[in-house]
Amino acid sequence: MKTIFTALLTCSILFSTGCATMFNGSSQTVNIRSNDADAKLYVNEEYMGKNNAVYTFKKKENYVLKAEKTGCKTTTVIPTKTFDPTTLLGVLVDWGIISILVVDGAATGSWQKFNQTSFVIDPDC
To answer: Could you say which residues form the signal peptide (predicted)?
Structure first.
């Protein structure tokens, strides 16, 4: 009984995280700034401040960045994602069944990463 418990505990620890999540995390810190000191910056309609902001993007989520200024046209940027190759290390752990499909994919979205971690967004004046 003790051997079965130890084996199950070991398997659950091994399969509880994916490689991309383990090595790169499930979020990325992103810097957003504007060359216009009066520009208001927004992330998904949430006001972040004027001129510059730092935000933590969850890899599983999608975001819309905006820069607004009175009398100017609002500029919108949608950050893009690409596949994170670190995810493929899960093939060595459990053939990717749990670590890639469940943990890195469905649970955390860590099989993707944002292409940029710094954005300069200026309103169109």
So the answer is: 1-22
